[in-house]
Amino acid sequence: MKKNDASYPIMAGRKLFTAGPVREIRSVLKAEARGSAYMRTDDFRNYTKALCTKLQAVLETQNPVLLVACSGTGVMEMAVVNTHPQMALVIGNGHFAHRWAEILDSHGFPYHVCADDTYAGVEEYYRHDGSKYTYDVVFGTFCESSTGRLLSEIPKISERIHRNKGIFVLDAVSGLVVNPLKTDEWGVDMVISCAQKGFGVAPGLSIISPSDRALALCRQRPCTSYYFDIARYVEDYQRGSTPYTPPVSLMHALDKSCDFILRQGGKYIQTCAKRTGELREQMKGLGFSITDEAHLGNCITEFSVPDAWHKAGISCDAIVSRLRVMGYETVPKDQKSFRVGNYNIFRAEEIRDFVSAVRTVLRSMERNLQAH
Amino acid sequence: MKKNDASYPIMAGRKLFTAGPVREIRSVLKAEARGSAYMRTDDFRNYTKALCTKLQAVLETQNPVLLVACSGTGVMEMAVVNTHPQMALVIGNGHFAHRWAEILDSHGFPYHVCADDTYAGVEEYYRHDGSKYTYDVVFGTFCESSTGRLLSEIPKISERIHRNKGIFVLDAVSGLVVNPLKTDEWGVDMVISCAQKGFGVAPGLSIISPSDRALALCRQRPCTSYYFDIARYVEDYQRGSTPYTPPVSLMHALDKSCDFILRQGGKYIQTCAKRTGELREQMKGLGFSITDEAHLGNCITEFSVPDAWHKAGISCDAIVSRLRVMGYETVPKDQKSFRVGNYNIFRAEEIRDFVSAVRTVLRSMERNLQAH
What we know:
Two copies of one chain form a homodimer.
Chain A: E1 15-16, H1 26-32, H2 42-59, E2 66-69, H3 72-83, E3 88-91, H4 95-107, E4 111-114, H5 119-129, E5 137-141, H6 154-163, E6 167-171, H7 183-186, E7 190-194, E8 205-210, H8 212-220, H9 230-237, H10 248-264, H11 266-286, E9 300-304, H12 307-311, H13 316-325, E10 328-329, E11 331-332, E12 337-341, H14 348-364, H15 366-371
């Protein structure tokens, strides 16, 4: 794996501190390059079953974990068109909660958006609407990758939803693997996620894991998609198969990633939390601020520049551009803030190197700062 | 790339003579293992534009070639929900023509199936229905991977469809790359295909290429999918982007594959035709028969055993199982026939080795044959 291959200028030596796709570790990359297998054999069906069992362990669930060839948005739509809500509630603010709303809109399903993602916020919505709306389906976002905010109080929220006979769908695209998610214990009815964030696999493979309650609802409702019809996936799942050709190379990579994660056990999430803490402390040491730090998950941080810097002409767009020149990919948000992702196991020195690069960028902008 | 890696029992030394996924050549596999890139950068947008330009050259079209993370069935549904037919015609027999019908059914769009895939067959349908049905959308299958049959007379069929102001959608999942497809010259309005057949890339990346006429129709019609809404893909295409995270590692592989194909030029298809001819001749030499050989494409062949063998207890299921033990994956069809795929550039000796393996299998069954 040469660092500088002229035929891959865009990848040569890039260090991904983005909110996905994220860096793949070497053993995962190697697994992807093993070549395709023919998937209509008993061997491959057994392999698929074993992979799904590993995914159940990662999700802490006994529910089936279905493999779907699409991006995270694909399985979001899959959750919507199969539950076919009569009245939905979308919890939380931020970009991906907005996507739930867009998908619901595009299908003409009615919904409310609850901008307060706490239990109290959700409870208020139930009270506010009295018996008028029962919210048969509630959509939440585990980790808002536009802000890094983690949905807390999930067990209480689930319980509230179940009390009104609703089902709880959780977009765990961004938070899974790097934050604890006890699907069954917490009463989440449908988890969706994908390979290219916490799992650290290339994009293209998504998962959807429905509870019996969720499947019972889906079976009562019409499904407006052929490709995303959950009943077909569940039927094939029982025999270790998928209705359409699965992304086999990404399955190999995901399998390797699950092995790595499960071998580490609880230590994996502890290390993610530790490195994220180090990143945040060191960046605050440079002068950046972080909003609502207590509610953030272990993978995404939005760093903001002080007003004084901003007035002095230091924009986050410029910081991101200069970091890119140094080989670091981060995510521009606006002039005042940018986002940094540290999925996977980053080493302490990788975090230090990154912060050191940011320091270098700031120094090169010092003239502006001093002029003020 | 070790042949026998205990952690990948299902792939160790397998030789894929299937109808997809197919064998990936080494440079394509290596490209897949380069790791992910962050796709919201100018570099990646330029890279995507360059890849789409190469795909245009392969498809012989000036139309946009849109990248979609899904299997081939996903882009089939994309074609259906965006053209939203008022009265469709499905051309051809076989498994994947049937899938067009299933998708149309699942959305409640009316259609006819024309089992005769010649121009005369199509013309008969137009005549038969007089002015009652104009067939605003006609769905065809370029190469029926269940039989290997290639749709011929495409230019005449296109012209007939256009005369009635319809648009022509072609499922080229199986036939593209290994057979000539002159999209623009032949008047095909929408080509769909995917990476895991002729391109020899792992599954998970599909393409859809709409003409201006096709897009104009899609814009008039409602689209019942969010993820598969073609207007979003076209909008992002103009700036080298995709609305949702694309499968970047498969894009790297597809890019390498396009380079390989385009470097060979016309010689690529000639070699495919030559190897396929060798395979067919050698298998006929063993006693297998091939139906309708003159109408077959360059990648799939259905080989049938003579009735006498079948009566003697030689089943194709058994042949496929024994070939599997020897490392060869082929596709069982029924007791009397099995399918063999030879996508990509197979070398003459690979074809010979395969036929020799089949001969060995037949010899081991000789006792049954002699008993008869």
